[in-house]
Design goal:
The chain is of the alpha/beta class. The protein has a single domain (2-233), classed as Aldolase class I (TIM Barrel). It is built from ten helices and eight strands. The protein has helices at 16-23, 37-53, 68-79, 94-107, 126-131, 138-151, 164-170, 198-203, 213-216, 221-233, and strands spanning 7-10, 32-35, 58-64, 85-89, 114-118, 156-158, 176-179, 208-211. It has an eight-stranded parallel β-barrel, surrounded by six helices. The longest helix is centred in the N-terminal third of the chain and has 17 residues, at 37-53.
Amino acid sequence: MKESSPVIVALDFPSKKETMQLVDKLEPTLCRLKVGKELFTRCGPALVKQLVDKNFDVFLDLKYHDIPNTVAKACVSAAELGVWMLNVHALGGEKMMATAKQALESNSNSDSPHLIAVTWLTSSGQTELDALGINMTPQEMVSRLAIMTQNAGLDGVVCSAQEAPMLRQSMNKNFLLVTPGIRPADASQDDQCRIVTPEKAMQDGSSYLVIGRPITQAAEPYKALKEIVNSLIQ
């Protein structure tokens, strides 16, 4: 069941107490967990290890971006926590990404964690590209950075669900597309302008779906998670 579930639950909480209250209602056979900057900065590696010890696959979402050697060492340190996936920022360049991937493979006694890259943040658009003097559209930027990521030997990218069809056509078939901003059709839009349902995201080529509030703020988180997973494996 675990391998058939593409759901990654985003643990967007400010404290360990709130995080564990939610995690205790979930099952590692139904989902993975994502730890981002706020939670990691507040609770540190100890929380990541605790989640791993509870048999959850953990996606450490810290978007490393620095000189190649520094990023490589950070990735190796993250791998030592037992994480399943981690990421860097593709804007760090092909050398940075390739160095990080090689370091993970060289320092792993078993399977190294998936290493993926963030391309162009969904919060940034044409205005930001123009301000940087980059003469291309956001879609062109995403495509270029994804190709660079694949050439560096990484396992995939984080991208918007709207970009998944384009990337699925141009990337290798095993290249992972991790898509945030997923909402079931009956969920509140909150601050999302465009909703992509889990079913549609998978049809469009997503490999893993990052889902937050529809699960974490549901009256019954386990039930909400189970319904989403069931909708994807029917």
